[in-house]
Amino acid sequence: MTGTVAVIDYGMGNLHSVASALEHAGAERVVVSCDPAEISAADRVVFPGVGAIRDCMAEIRRLHCDELLMRALSDERKPVLAICVGMQALLDRSEENGGVDCLGLIPGEVRFFGHPLNDAEGRRLKVPHMGWNEVRQVRQHPLWAGIADGARFYFVHSYYVKVKERALVAGAVDYGVSIDAALARDNLFAVQFHPEKSHTAGLRLLKNFLEWDGTC
Amino acid sequence: MGLARRIIPCLDVDNGRVVKGVNFVGIRDAGDPVDIARRYNEEGADEITFLDITASHEDRDTTAHTVEAIACEVFIPLTVGGGIRSLADIRNMLNAGADKVAINTAAIHNPQLVQEASQRFGAQCIVVAIDAKRVADVDGRPRYEIFTHGGRRPTGIDAVAWAQRMAALGAGELLLTSMDRDGTRDGFELGVTRAITDAVDVPVIASGGVGRLEHLAEGILIGGADAVLAASIFHFGDYTIAQAKDHLASCGIEVRR
User: Which segments of the protein form a coiled coil according to its record (chain B) (predicted)?
Assistant: First the structure.
């Protein structure tokens, strides 16, 4: 039973893709909302995000989505999946937009890739990091079930996550620097890539999330 | 190993129908963009670009509905271009389910639109489409200019300088089409492709002129493109996406399988 999945909507961009991918992956019911009652009633929560961090953080706070998220994580202890800017928002601070304070739920920061960016062989890398890259599963986790280690997921971002507590890193990807591509802590899983745009591997990760009991 | 180079089939859509023929086996209706997008998705396309060539304004609603239908079934990135003139147009396409929106002529008339769109929606979803054409050489070196109206109207703007300006204003990606090569099947115009990929930090999609699989590899290896876009070689059933990826891999190019 996947139950109801609530996608937290704080008005930044279209959540249609996330919702339809969750439905495609087998969700019984998907609600896209910022209504506390609806999110509280859901069995699991997705915290998405696109666009610039300053605007995202402003809307998250204005609509009290930070409180909804913390309630789902700590009080209700539901499975929570954070995606892209939703993942970045969990950290202490981001370098984007001249420096923005984030939610501080996970110690660490969000950094700019930098110019110029080169790979190990000295070849220039483009920013944003856009396209399909290989995610190393540095730690076992129920959300990796049935997904090959090194499977490609779709990324599009100019800032990347670096957490302090390295044991939280569940997936890594190389793009000039080693990026924390997935984090796992208790009932939280967070990804820098877009599972809703990552075809078979992405849909499988969403299916795994829908079947996850929040333990690891 | 690392980031894969992308292969992007392009659908030219007029009033909700794909204009160029598609010979996929098992597709009931060769003109239905949803059918075709689904097929490319299954074949392993890395993204899909949907180019709306509809002339009239009323048909924009049709486009939004088609984009919506594709986004419900296709879980790879979808770029929508053609006739995007304002922030409202961009918002409509993003709300319909596009992941990225390509701006072309409107960027020439109003470059600030690119900056405003990037700030509002994020650079990751703003693609600037550049139609370049070779003009008289300067000091023995080719010069490329931006053209509008399908390559008929010159603007006098240098293509490389324009690419740099668009990236500086916040374009997250550039879609470069050679108007000299588009439709010829003679291969990409590699000179302008290389000049622009070298000049900007953002990813560049090469487009215009693909007739054989070798052309895709050249666009990446010689042109330096981060992604290659083609329409007719896939639409007419000459090659599948899988064959294109096999060929790129045989040239030592990293692809997603």
Answer: none
Question: A182 forms bridges with which residues in the sheet?
Answer: A171, A191
Domain coverage including residue A113: 4-211
Dist. CA B129–CA A20, nearest whole Å: 28
Q: Do B202 and A127 touch (CB under 8 A)?
A: yes
Cβ distance B75 to A16 less than 8 Å, yes or no, reads: no
Tell me the nearest-neighbour CA distance from B247 into chain A, angstroms: 18
Tens digits of residue pLDDT in A64-117: 999 999 999 999 999 999 999 999 999 999 999 899 999 999 999 999 998 788
Q: pLDDT tens for residues B174-228?
A: 999 999 999 899 999 999 999 999 999 999 999 999 999 999 999 999 999 999 9
Fill in the amino acid letter for A137: Q
Which residues does residue A106 pair with via DSSP β-bridges, in sequence order? A91
Domain annotation covers residue B215 = yes
CATH of the domain at A140: 3.40.50.880
Our measurement of the distance from residue B178's CA atom to the centroid of its chain's CA atoms, rounded to an integer in Å, reads 11
**Angle at CA B203, nearest 5°, toward A47 and A82?**
10
- Evaluate the omega torsion of the peptide bond into residue B142 and state whether it is cis, within 30 degrees of 0: no
Instruction: Find the catalytic residue in B131, B158, B182, B226.
Output: B131
According to DSSP, residue B123 is labeled G
